[in-house]
Amino acid sequence: MSHSLTFLLGLPVLTDGPLWQAAKALDAPVLISANALSLWRQDGPGLRQWLCFDRRKLHLAWQHPVYLDSGGFVNAVLYRGYPWTVTHYMDLCEAAPWQWFASADMCVEPEVAQNRTEVFDRISGTARLNRECLIEARQRGIADRFTPVLQGWHPHDYLRCLDRMPDISGFPILGVGSMCRRHVEGDTGILRVVDVLDRALGSSPVRLHLFGLKTTGMAELSGHPRIASVDSQAYGVAARKAAHQGGFSKSNAYLARVMTGWYRQQQAILARPAMPFRSPLHPVAFAPGDDPGPLPPALAARLAETAEELRALYEAGEIEWTDLTPSRVWEAAFA
Which residues does the UniProt record annotate as the domain DeoxyPurine in DNA protein A (predicted)? Predict the structure, then answer.
């Protein structure tokens, strides 16, 4: 298993402007979100209707390595879900020679999934989206560039997701989501998640892409044989802060200069001798389940079992996302 780690430079847009030219000059492989290609119609104050993906700049992907992400976190926060269908997204995946394209997924950061029930539901949603994207990718003959994506918050959430995924044994890269808003250390830290997944994958040659990894996490994991690549667009935050404090506009030309310096810093970190991977010091504790509150144990167990049955039906495509509600669980438990 190769130990080299590739750093993907996140770009907020795909246009032949200062950011693109700077990325090419740096010879930096680029990651963009499908959101960067969305076209919207303004239907009224605060009301926007998604129209389609803008394909006018996709020719750039023939000039320089570009990777595609579905943008699940932004969609979850801004739109409470994807404004497009899997077929729309796979049309985009088929339309350009992306180095790889990530499956659509459902992130589980605390600001999106506010309790364990929502985490479990969204893990089931991620498993189903992976399956639907993979089916379409195979039908279109582009499955060789498909990258499955795992989701979770506690380390064992990722194992739960892995267990529900379609067969991923033939894919060289496995994406790992919900990375950018967590600490390096701790029970739900990046090191813990990577350690659990690495052990679970065993002798499999599959390697991981960590979405939105912080610089400190990248430095810790640069020599880990399981990590294939990471991405970040953190330079945007620094540029926005500097522009605000300086009282000037954050133009793309200015952002490109900040991005160039920041990217070179990331490359310098990767050029250092790799740090030995520090396995977490303590065994991983299983994630706590939902607090049943005053419910009798037998009733709580029955509801939990029913919820799992509904999630399995959803993953199989037999029911819809709207069926994964507390009221539906109660109804099904006593039907």
Answer: 65-251
